[in-house]
Amino acid sequence: MIGLKGMTMSHNRILWLSVLVILSPAIMPLAARAGIVAATGQSEKTDPAGAGDEAATKAKAALKDTAAKVVLVFDSLPGEADAKQKMLDAVAKQFDAAIIYGCSAYNAITQETVSATVGVLALGGDIQASVALAPVEKDDFKGAGVKIGEGLKDAAVKAGQAGKLLVLIGACHVPKDNDLTQGVLSVLGEKFPVAGGAAMGDLAYFQGKVQPMHDVGLLLSGDFKTVFSLRNSGSNDPMDQVNVARDAAKEAVGETKDKLVLLFTFECGGRRDQMGAERPKELDLIKAEAGACPIFGFYGSGEIGKKGDKPAQGVGYHISVVAITSK
User: Fold this and answer.
1) Alpha-carbon span 249 to 132, nearest angstrom
2) DSSP letter at 309?
3) Measured between alpha carbons, how far is residue 230 from residues 4, 107, 266, 305, 312 in Å?
4) What is the DSSP string of 56-80?
5) Please, what are the domains in the chain?
């Protein structure tokens, strides 16, 4: 394991074994709900620079006067790491590269489409973010999870009783997504709130740079609550797959639609294929439960989530939904 040089204190602190970035708080306008401002943007272009610019420009415009504290990017652009980097460079023209994280996907998902080539989520307002990066060495996915857990342990303790969500993404194709998850939980505790998914092509994004065969843990904390749903239709029928998305969103949102700030959805690429031409219908059903709040996620190579109070797990052919609501 190599040591890492220090960076500016306004954005991060560096630890051995993994990289921990603590994004500093700032005085910002509060959103109407939970003090969190969530803004998404998307593009269906295939040109990396053009798609990145369009999605980032939309997200930044939706933020209005609020400064972004952390930015998530998911994409399904054709090409290898060099194409992804061109996309990230375009996003970095709108947002500081030091706060840009994400991974490759089969498609990004926002409230506008399930077919985005690039999706961007910008978060600002009353929310804090800490980030850890870990390489996958010798196929030791659990070890990568342990490193992420160790990198975020102090930040999790510091957050105290605040609401928490660890978004776990990167190189962890099912069933390795569960190994990664269990590694994290072995450090942070088996009930720690974790959701996320496996990157298509094993490409993670950290501080605006492509990181092959790495995993990223993004710990969000603030004055919010999380409710999870993790479901599998158990069927290959396209409409059964569509309808299970409605059931997952309904379970996560519950009676809190008026307090909903953001809905994350992490879905299996296999489900995407099974839905076929019916796939846009699942977004309609999710939106019917979520209302007008932002929706963000991706179709990946495995998904991570929680069933009720059970420990988080990495699975395949599921939909993992997390509702973030005001307390």
Assistant:
1) 28
2) T
3) 37, 19, 9, 6, 9
4) HHHHHHHHTTPPEEEEEEEE--SS-
5) 224-326 (3.30.1330)
Strand duo 163-170 + 194-198: pairing? parallel
Is 115 exposed, middle or buried, given 0-12, 13-18 or 19+ CB atoms closer than 10 A? middle
Q: Got the DSSP string for 88-143? A: HHHHTTTS-GGGEEEEE-SEEEESS-S-BSEEEEEEEESEEEEEEEEE--TT-HHH
Question: Can you state the angle between helices 48-63 and 81-91, rounded to 10 degrees?
Answer: 30
Which run of H or E residues covers position 217? strand 214-222
Judged against a pLDDT cut of 50, whether residue 229 lies above it is answered with yes
Single pTM value for the model:
0.90
CA dihedral 273, 205, 253, 61 (to 10 degrees): -110
Helices (H), 132-231: 141-159, 176-188
Is 21 a residue whose pLDDT tops 80? no
3-state secondary structure of 170: strand
DSSP state of 21: E
Q: Length of the chain, please? A: 327
Is residue 152 within 8 Å of 217, Cβ to Cβ? yes
Q: What is the pLDDT of residues 29-84, one digit of tens each?
A: 233 444 899 999 999 999 999 999 999 999 999 999 999 999 999 999 999 999 99
Residue entry with tokens 């396209």: 238
pLDDT tens digits for 107-142? 999 999 999 999 999 999 999 999 999 999 999 999
